[in-house]
Design a protein that fits this description.
By secondary structure, this protein is α/β, with parallel strands linked by helices. Helix 1 packs parallel to helix 9 and helix 3 packs across helix 5.
Length: 289
């Protein structure tokens, strides 16, 4: 049975991410797939230029003032009460995610929250197919690693999927998570460490025993590694970019939004058999039809 998924793009109104967000909104972010909603979470703009970018994204003349820890939403844009750049607030990425999580939990129909970076391309149809067979609780899913020195297992923030109940626990503990954060701007490592030490019920040393870059020894199965469903195109030449069956996440270079736009044309091009790619028509194409 398919699940209702909220995709949360960890957005930023400053360069180079402003251009990447424009590319996302006009490509996969404009695609309509039943059971999937796409949201963009920003923090307080860094400067006047970023404020103009965010105001345009929100469809407003001026960006509203949001108090620390609070949230303002306009359409699919979530404005979190924190900084937009880590140079203004080191842990702003962590705060953005947690604030967005709390807001999205107000929607009872959401089963999974999938949070991605601002240089991601998501094949939503492939995402639906990949998550259909996943459990609906106690799930932390994505490219899995172990952070050096601390031995902390973590899921990359570029492609991090969480079950609703796990998100609720993180929101309930958010103040303590922020206070005890020992990994600075590395919010994905912070969340991995918290889940490993607070929710797994297994000592950290035992949890990662036998780790071989493809598995974590977790009797309660909180962590699930999913490397085969993500493709890294950050340094791959454009001519080698191709969509692959079973892959729903593609990671692009932050300074090359054109690569993401080009990749979208490959995903939506008719196949040799005359069928459309895995995506359905975008809102833009429907409105211009």
């Amino acid at each position: 049975m398919s699940k209702h998924i909220a995709i949360v793009v960890l957005a930023c109104a400053s360069p180079p991410y402003d251009k990447m967000l424009d590319a996302i909104r006009t490509t996969w972010g404009a695609v309509e797939v039943p059971g999937v909603e796409v949201f963009y979470v920003y923090g307080k703009p860094h400067d006047d230029q970023a404020e103009a970018v965010l105001a345009r994204a929100m469809g407003l003349d001026k960006v509203p003032r949001v108090e620390p820890g609070e949230v303002y939403r306009k359409g699919r844009v979530i404005l979190a009460g924190c900084a937009d750049l880590k140079q203004d607030q080191e842990d702003c990425l962590l705060r953005k995610r947690l604030i967005a999580f709390e807001h999205l939990l107000l929607d009872d129909k959401i089963d999974l929250i999938y949070t991605v970076c601002a240089t991601s391309y998501i094949d939503q149809s492939q995402l639906i197919a990949a998550t259909a067979g996943l459990r609906s609780n106690n799930l932390f899913y994505g490219p899995l690693g172990v952070f050096p020195d601390s031995g902390t297992p973590w899921i990359s923030g570029a492609s991090m999927l969480l079950s609703r109940d796990l998100v609720q626990r993180l929101v309930d503990d958010s103040a303590t998570i922020i206070k005890q954060n020992q990994f600075g701007w590395r919010d994905d490592v912070t969340l991995g460490h918290w889940i490993a030490t607070q929710y797994s019920g297994v000592p950290l040393s035992e949890l990662v025993a036998g780790y071989d870059r493809r598995s974590v020894s977790d009797p309660e199965q909180v962590f699930f590694g999913a490397w085969h469903q993500s493709e890294d195109f950050v340094i791959t030449p454009r001519e080698n970019h191709q969509p692959r069956s079973g892959v729903y996440h593609y990671h692009f270079h932050s300074h090359r939004p054109g690569d993401l736009v080009h990749f979208h044309s490959l995903c939506t091009a008719p196949s040799e058999a005359g069928n459309q790619g895995t995506h359905t028509k975008s809102k833009a194409s429907k409105s211009s039809a």
